[in-house]
Amino acid sequence: MLDLSQTVSNIRALTASLFGVAAGTLGLESFPGFIFYFFGTAIVSVLIYGLKAESDPKAYFYRPFADLWAGDMFGGLMSFVLTWTLFYGLCKA
User: Fold this and answer.
1) Domain around 12
2) pTM for this structure?
3) How many domains does the chain have?
4) pLDDT per residue over 24-39, tens digit each?
């Protein structure tokens, strides 16, 4: 069974790609696309905090801020940009 940090990492990787699909399909460019990603990541962090960590992240994470709120934010950015440009190109072609 996966521990919570691995589950959070998997959730972030999946949602980063889904945000990229959404941003590319919506035709977002440049700064609004990155704002969309960071806003979506913040929403996912709030959901993880409330649903998975049961509003007590210290019980599940060694470093709650780094692991829950900022963890994998920039790692997921590469997946976001990849799918964002792919779907933007598919929709604008």
Assistant:
1) 4-92
2) 0.83
3) 1
4) 999 999 999 999 999 9
